[in-house]
């Protein structure tokens, strides 16, 4: 996959009209940084973002060991908008677009400085680790707005914070501040916003210094099988997308 040091979109079609689509940087060997523009609701922008991420995953070269997903602040006032497509293969394609973030031979790290809502939170949960600035927050808006999770957030939340707290967060859609997110295990670490880049660099350095075979084997052991959970989310999402859904 041709990647240049400066930030460049994958292709014109993978970038939103306002330039907010996935953009790539190669800052050092073994590291790929993917900057994702604001995505809150499940709309055309989210679909283009997932399509861009899917292409990155398909074209990922074997030298990449760590992927940093930089998530831009998403507007908390937006509401989820279900896609008109309700076919299982289409929804499975959206899920497949982020499945590579869980590959055993790649460690994925989500970072954010500001509030994340909806799809952006799901993308953060797709990653192995989450590193937030103190001003960041997480809000799963689906239940409040008639939407449903799609990218594996439900199972991931249960793994991270337990069934009871996951149920509360999904059903109430309340905002979780960075400090609480760290306390309950939803994120790996919280740092002052001005130190986020330095903290990310330090984390990446530690991951790149690890033995790759040992890291891959360990991550494979830690990963849970998500197939059944993802299928259940597709079915739920499709039901909510129907015009007669109540």
From TrEMBL:
<dbReference type="InterPro" id="IPR029045">
    <property type="entry name" value="ClpP/crotonase-like_dom_sf"/>
</dbReference>
<dbReference type="GO" id="GO:0003824">
    <property type="term" value="F:catalytic activity"/>
</dbReference>
<dbReference type="InterPro" id="IPR001753">
    <property type="entry name" value="Enoyl-CoA_hydra/iso"/>
</dbReference>
<feature type="region of interest" description="Disordered">
    <location>
        <begin position="1"/>
        <end position="30"/>
    </location>
</feature>
<protein>
    <submittedName>
        <fullName>Enoyl-CoA hydratase/carnithine racemase</fullName>
    </submittedName>
</protein>
<dbReference type="Pfam" id="PF00378">
    <property type="entry name" value="ECH_1"/>
</dbReference>
